[in-house]
Amino acid sequence: MTQSVRPRLLVAGGAIAIASAVGIGRFIYTPILPAMIQGLPLTESEAGLIASANYIGYLMAALAATSPRMPGGQRAWMLTSLALSVVTTGLIFTAQSLVTLLLLRFVGGAASAFVFLLTAVIVMERLISVRREDLAGMHFVGIGIGISASALVAWGIDSLGGDWRMMWLVGGVVSLAGFLAVAVTVPAGSTPGYPTAPTTRSIRPLGIWPLVAAYALFGFGYVITATFIVAIVRESPDLRPIEPFIWLVVGLAAIPSIAFWSGLSRRYGVLRVFAAACIVEAIGVVLSVAFQSATAMFLAAASLGGTFVGITALGLTAAHKLTLGDPRRAVALMTAAFGLGQAVGPAAAGYGFDLTGSFFIPSLTAAAALCIAAAIAGRLSLRA
């Protein structure tokens, strides 16, 4: 079936899948959050708990995906998970309690993890089968596209006088359109297997575990700002006029970031560039809470969007390079570590806000985690 692969169409389909399940299904919570805090109402700790429920679901699904055997085809699993993401996103408009929100976000997080993992594997395998590895990773632009779409949905509904429930419903409709597009652009077909290798050597032990630790720290380091940056802006009367644009800047900055950081990695090495991107992101995290100015917030938004998708792709690329045989277990292990870090971050930040009245200390902790991740990756790059 490899003769039927159309590489650019496949990449487009992968990008739409990730835009729907991750860019919208996971990240639309950020621009809607301020309206939810006021409309329900929610405390920051409850808001953080809802975000963490989504990431715990993501973590659990990533752990499940480490299984060497999954009944049924990868495409069927991906489409089913994408459909579940669509449903859980749209159904939040019916939520009447914190428990319901937690449940829907947990299931949605699990669905987004399966879509992310399986899309990455399907696209990579099929591109390899037609010798178009040069397009590998390009489907990650879907994260930025989905984030931009989620910002426009929240802004558009708010400008029309709609509430947070309508924002979720429209987000679900947009995701449904994405599902239909993916069903057409990612056709069924077989993919080549990986060379058989002894189970104990499927992952090189000296390389992968420090990388896994760095990836977990990255997950913790990015997610506090990614969850609360719009809420931080709304808290300041001086910054409130720029609220509709902050999340859009994150999404727009994310779109070219894959090409930018991938280009640097080909020249300087994947893990060195991973480390550099973590430092840039740490600076942005500090800017988001250290200076109450529009310039600082736009720089923080641009550095967040311009790095976290690139770091995600670089980490998975490094995992592929440190893996012998089928890379799915390594990718799932990395995603699980990432999920653990991002599951802890929002809940810790929400409770930190309730205790201190700001996100300053949680954000500085996140920046420190990013710096440690950079140090680990920098050292690993010397021997990888």
CATH architectural arrangement = Up-down Bundle
What name goes with the CATH superfamily? MFS general substrate transporter like domains
Order of helices and strands: HHHHHHHHHHHHHH
Total beta-strand segments: 0
| End-to-end C-alpha gap | 35 Å
CATH level-1 class: Mainly Alpha
Mean pLDDT over the residues = 88
- Largest sheet features: none
Please tell me what the overall shape is. globular
Structural class from helices and strands? mainly alpha
Number of domains: 1
Helix % is over 70%
Please tally the helical runs, counting DSSP H or I stretches of 4 or more residues.
14
Proportion of residues in β-strands: under 5%
Unreliable parts: 191-203
The value of Rg in angstroms is: 19 Å
Describe the structure.
The chain has 384 residues and is mainly alpha-helical. It has one domain: Growth Hormone, Chain: A, CATH 1.20.1250.20. It has 14 helices and no strands. The chain has helices at 7-24, 29-39, 44-64, 74-91, 98-129, 141-159, 164-185, 205-235, 243-254, 257-268, 270-290, 294-321, 328-356, 360-380. It is globular and about 55 Å long.
Kindly summarize this structure in a few lines.
The protein is built from 14 helices and no strands. The relative contact order is 0.17. It is mainly alpha-helical and 384 residues long.
